[in-house]
Amino acid sequence: MVDKLVNRVETLLALILIGAVLLNCVNIAGRYFFNYSITGADELQIFGMIAISFIGLFVVSWRQRHLRMDVLVRNAPPWLQVMLEVAERVLTLAVALLLLFVSFEYVARMFQLGITSENVGLPMWIPHAVITIGFALTAAVTVVQIVARCRAVFAAGKKAGEV
């Protein structure tokens, strides 16, 4: 179920990227050939990149494809690999939750103040909410992964007669 959601989110993010590139191309052509520029095109592209980055964090977290320096971990004993994997996920969860709450407070403030973007007039709480949503999804995925890993370790221990 989560894999299907991740695939759909990835498709949406790809469409946002394609839309940003097309918008950029149209804006460039308009500027150079017709002396016309789309008001707010740059803002919309920036908002799209923010969405790709922070919602993409959810996709990367689920697939466990983040950049990491794991040369030492790969050569460590299996028990240490498991402990480091769980520690990494717990740390990821802590950071995601911290940033979730900080960004939520910021979004709430933006909503209360009614601030809009300069050119498009988009309420600024919307692009900032994308950051909050990205960290919320990342935290949820990390919890699922921690629970799954703990169950796997428990099941392996039980099967081996250690638990």
Quick structural overview:
Helices cover 80% and strands 0% of the residues. With 163 residues, it is an all-alpha fold. The model has no long low-confidence stretch (mean pLDDT 90).
List the helices and strands and how they pair.
Blueprint: H1 2-34, H2 41-63, H3 71-74, H4 78-113, H5 125-159
Shape: elongated
Oligomer: single chain
The biggest sheet amounts to:
none
Number of strands: 0
Using the CA coordinates, give the radius of gyration. Answer: 21 Å
The average pLDDT score comes to 90
Span of the ends, CA to CA? 31 Å
- State the order of secondary-structure elements, H for helix, E for strand: HHHHH
- The share of residues in helices is over 70%
Number of domains: 1
Outline the low-pLDDT stretches. Answer: none
Number of helices: 5
In terms of structural class, how would the helical and strand content be classed?
Answer: mainly alpha
Strand content: under 5%
